[in-house]
Structure prediction request, 908 residues.
Amino acid sequence: MNILLRICVSAGALILAAAPAFAITVKEVKSPGGVTAYLAEDHTTPIIAITFGLRGGSALDPAGKLGLAEMVTSTLDEGAGDLDSFAFQSALQDRAIKLRFTTDRDMIRGSFITTTPNAAKAFELMQLALTKPRFDAEPVERIRRQIQVVLAERDEDPNQAAQKTLMETVFAGHPYAHEEEGTQETVATITADDMRAWVKRTFARDRLLVSASGDITPADLGKAMDQLFGDIPKTTGLNVTLPPATAPAKGKTIRVEKNLPQSVVVMAQKGIARRDPDWYAAQLDDYTFGSAGMNSRLMLEVREKRGLAYGVSTDLAPFDAGALLFGSVGTRADQANTSLGIIRDEWKKMRDAGPTQQELDDAKQYLTGAWPLRFTSTGSIAEILLAIQKDNLGIDYIDKRNSMINAVTLADAKRVAKSLYDPDGLTVVIVGPASKGAKAAAKP
Amino acid sequence: MRRFVLGLALVLAGVSVMAVQAEAAVYGAETFTLANGLQVVVIPNHRAPVVSHMVWYRIGGSDEVPGKSGIAHFLEHLMFKGTPKYPGTAITDTVAKNGGDQNAFTSQDYTGYYQDIAVDRLPLVMDIEADRMRNLVLDKKEVETEREVIIEERRMRIDNVPDAILDERMKATLWMTNHYSVPVIGWEAEMHELTREDAFDVYHAAYAPHNAILVVAGDITTAQLKPLAEKYYGAIPKVGVYQPRVRPTFLYPKADSQVIMHDERVGQPQWSRQIIAPSYNVGDRVDVHALEVFAEMIGGGSTAKMYRTLVIDQKVAAAFGAAYDADAISYGTFYVSMTPSPGATPAQAEAAYTKAMDAMLKDGITDADVAQAKRRILANLAFAKDSPMSAARAVGAALAVGETLNDIESWPDEITKVTADQVRSAARKLFAENSSVTGILLPPEEAPAPPPLSSRAATKGAKP
Prediction:
């Protein structure tokens, strides 16, 4: 499901009318041992969130061991040091410390949220997980079984089945083509030794990004970072650069036959890199086109006017090695071609004419006005600070972002729409029954 | 650790299913009531200059008249269709142009609307929400189109999802004549027949100040909110007095039913059980709090005893979970679910579960287990105030099913008071006395070879 999430800091901010004064102070903290972090210090609630990322994710899984990063990150909190799985999990649960590791295609993430009185224990447990994971046979086999279950269920869910096929098609031959969980065959072959070797080559400070928010001072964070990461090697020489991932210029349509009352249609074309100077124009265009919830053009045409779907949306997904623009709709099986036809028409209109001045203004007002809504919990603030570092947006990004959105002109928005929206480049996956309508609609 | 979350699909939310559990802590909430009967709740949180503004109506799927299933949820959709002051798409447009996120949701027992928005735009969303409480306009054509949308929503949430189809059948089996037997989204055959007039019937009967609760959480104080509430909501005339909803408490004699569903789409078998349980409104509160502790004890992740027996020691299940929902106008529900391990059948998992649960109920609930479960529940409350959005949703849901703010704020005290004997007694009573339904989801049966054509023709006309 990760692929339809916004990878980057999404939605942003400021305003034509008076935007609320919004101040969140981000400091760069350097530990005595030389680890740096972004910190949003806030002592109003006794809660601390730490989030860190390591560049390089499941796309680096060896071909025969697809699913390795997922398997390791799912097992890292299942015992470390002298603590077996039961002892480790009990130590977390007794103190309500929320500690977890995840992976996506580009990055490994670790995080915890804790109350201030339990912070010392949280740091200690996270340090153990990072430096002395056990990978005992019982939890390794249990996590393997759970991943096998996830894989078995994935084909049951038309959305996941559709996304999997879409990624396999759009990124055929590229490491991005495989899902984080790997396959039944590859997951069966992963050993505890594979997992230990993965830890050894993956954890290194030269690919580490750290963020923190909440009830902690810079000095305490500095000490904690040395405790957490001091024993991790400076570098392991791992090369995380992937070959460019390029979506096909000419899209094809793939049907996955399933006996469903509602067809799930997902689609993708080449997107725009997060670091592209036109990112903000693209974000505004995408809001107008398909990301604005009830207010998007697609929602208006497909749902509000015609009642063909409950949900239809698009999303910019800037993976590190290649970006995509996604679309999806769930629509009555016998109307799938109608819905897809409307979406393709809208895609053309967006390319040819871009947004109107009114649409652009509305998009700016939403994106800038909604920016403070992203900063309402300790954990969400830490996550945004990590995303800012991942994409090198700068420590003043939170303050700058709305002005960058507002600087986009109508000419920019139209120019970017023209180069971004490419109806002929759409790769489309339709999961649903073999419809009688399919043949009829195939005629011009 | 991978977390397998038990599907508590009780609420049809536009964005996501919200936490149904009260999760009540010391929110520091304050309340006052307007002359027209509207209860107002304020939950201050000054971290960011934003608020979550919510209006909850004490009406849900279970308040529908027979034959009109889905109308409460249909009305929720239609509430975005405009008023004379905010016509057409003005409700959605205006909130978006002001940087607000908004949506709505319907459960068996309530319907809620919210806008998360910068605090200086609060008066605007109060004006919109107060306006549509009484002045909704519905165009016949728009109602027709929106009916197609909710039917697509049903296909997406239920008909496309084998688990959800099974859950629907399990609830129908368990609850029989209790309204909780009817899905909130509606039975499809009845959804097709829902009309504009049906929607207005519900609207006029239930959408009024005395039947609503306003919750505002975020960068605001009671002193700041009071004049705004008076200005926007206070102007709505008083049209009635809040009467607690009373549902029939009749239960049929205990029976344990089983629903088995084979579906060609199923790749992974599932086993789950739902048991009728006491709630905050029906039954003994002591049992409710004891069962909340029991649910934490047996369902609290990979260190819980049942999980250890079934998943870690016997390996018959890949996942085990338990949950308890007591926030209900009628009875509550206790949920247990298992994912059989690859290679294990639901029947094997169920046999192991039955044995483990019998042992647990006999002498497996120790004083130490209960003390630990209580500590863990209380430790988690530290996060209750972190996000104003989550706080508003938890408090609103509890109030909407008839709990008081005092119930919510003093919940930690009630949990603290729970004794191990109370947990043993409540758990034994739950399993011994209450009806249950077990659902088993399986891939297609091995299809028997089709009979020869001649015999098929012969049996076709035969009637039992």
About this structure: Chain A is about 40% helix and 20% strand. The longest helix of chain A spans residues 137-154.
